[in-house]
Amino acid sequence: MALLFYVVLCLSVWTGLCQRVSNFDADKNKTYIDTLSPYPTAFSSNTSKKYFLTKLGLQKDYPCPVVAGTDYFRVGSDGSCSTPNCNGILPVGSTARFRYVLINPANKTVVAESLWSNNITLYPLKDPESIDNGFAGRSASMIVITSILCSFLALLLLLLLIMLIYVLCCREEKQEIQVPGSVRMYDTHNLKDPSPYVNRAYEDEPQRPTATSPIRLKSYTDYDLKKPATEL
Amino acid sequence: DRRTATMADGKGTTCLMVILILGNIFGAAAGLALCALAIWVAVDEYKLYPISGVSGKDDIFAGAWIAIFTGFAFFCMCVFGILAAAKKSRALMLTYLILMLIIYIFECASCITAVTHRDYLVGNSNLVKKQMLKYYAADGDSGSRITLTWNKVMKEVECCGTDGPVDWIEHNSTFREKFGTDYPWPTHCCKRKNNYEVVNLEACKNGQNTTMFTKGCFNHIESVFSRYTWAISWYGFAVLMFMFWLLILAMVYYLML
What we know:
The structure holds 2 protein chains of 2 kinds.
Chain A: E1 4-12, H1 21-27, H2 39-42, E2 51-58, E3 95-103, E4 110-113, E5 120-121, H3 140-169
Chain B: H1 2-6, H2 10-43, H3 49-54, H4 59-87, H5 90-122, H6 126-135, H7 140-157, H8 166-170, H9 174-179, H10 201-206, H11 218-256
Helix pairs in contact in B: 2-4, 2-11, 4-5, 4-11, 5-11, 6-7
């Protein structure tokens, strides 16, 4: 007699204890157990039985795994399905337990069953908009760089300003006073060289009459002893 | 005759002139190196620009672009400074001082911008994670750029998700809404053979850690952006510290001229 293999999933919402184990245990001894709580209605409302049976199959369909370490059963691999015994996804964030049962194919009563597993809590699905990507904090290097650079820049600007003001306003005291005609160099006369002496200190002054530019007399009378002085 | 007055401290001026010329040679080399380093950052060899671009916080690269120009400008100005110092010309020295100050201001801006935006971007993993969940496998230009970038990172760095594959199953995402719950995470998280075939798709879907990558990608992304930022901001900071003292010396020289 071929026996059918089933997996039963039971759900609990509030605490770690499976409240709905009792639902399955209550139905355990009835016939046609695979139709008592089909998957689409198992979790749909508050009054549903909150368990479902899935993965019907004969024993020969479940051989021992060939590759070691890959013996697993993936709950929910059918996604959102609608047939009565499909392997659908569990509600998000719920806590579940499972067990294996052997069912008599004739009247679908439970023949043998394993123990309930431990509670398995699923991840609650968080909204990505709830991630706060605002202020991530300031690193130490950012504070060092910003503060030192800003203060040095301010210092540089200040020093440049002070230097410019100093150069524009206060620099005159350092310069020497240029007095026209002050004797700085004196060249002695040279008797051997009877060229007319030109004192270079007086170069700045307006042109004075020298030997090269004779004085032009406006009137000149030849001084004659014979003639008495008539003019003056 | 002004020449008589300055001849008295000529030795000091010559000494300062030599120091200035040497400092300017060093500054020119430093400025050129800054330009080259900034070009390396702007080229973005790790191709992670979309992560910063889509979020709008791409000023690490803006800092790099400014540093390209200020680095080259520092080079040119330092060469000019050598000329100004050798000629002992007051007008040239003043021009040098004012132009160097303007470039100094821009370089300060570049350093501060780069380091501040690095903090926004990779201070913690939240921004990168939120962007990945929102834009991976999304439609549109941003979506495709983010998807391509993440696929490249996951393949090359051998990682999955931001802090780990758990990000994909803990949060709702565009990827989950599009592809349902059969694939809890993208197939790029799975280990592949050399011919790009997935080693074991079912085991990868189940989360078996021998067949998929379990470390997060955030460490790599953070280290790349930090590398770019330290290149621009810390090296720029070093150049600016050197230029500060050079400018102080130049001001003293100008006063002595």
